[in-house]
TrEMBL record:
This is Small EDRK-rich factor-like N-terminal domain-containing protein. Residues 1-20, 51-62 have a biased composition (Basic and acidic residues). It comes from Coniosporium apollinis (strain CBS 100218). Pfam families: SERF-like_N (PF04419). Residues 1-36 form the Small EDRK-rich factor-like N-terminal domain. InterPro entries: SERF-like_N (IPR007513). Residues 1-62 are annotated as: Disordered. Residues 40-50 have a biased composition (Low complexity).
Length: 62
């Protein structure tokens, strides 16, 4: 029976961990929109930096 007890303990531990995890988005609509806009601004900045780097490399190679 030791094995059955071990399974039960593991199952209880897993359920406890799963209950503590965040399952869904907890942000309100405005918070989510603000986060989305911030992430988009970061990506635009990265893209602009990458394009500038490519343009600089292209100018030096010619």
């Amino acid at each position: 029976m030791a094995r059955g007890n071990q399974r039960d303990k593991a199952r209880e531990k897993n359920l406890k961990e799963q209950a503590g995890k965040k399952n869904k988005n907890q942000q309100s609509g405005t918070e989510f929109q603000r986060t989305k806009e911030d992430q988009a601004a970061i990506m635009r900045a990265k893209q602009a930096a990458a394009e500038a780097k490519r343009a600089a490399e292209g100018a030096t190679k010619k």
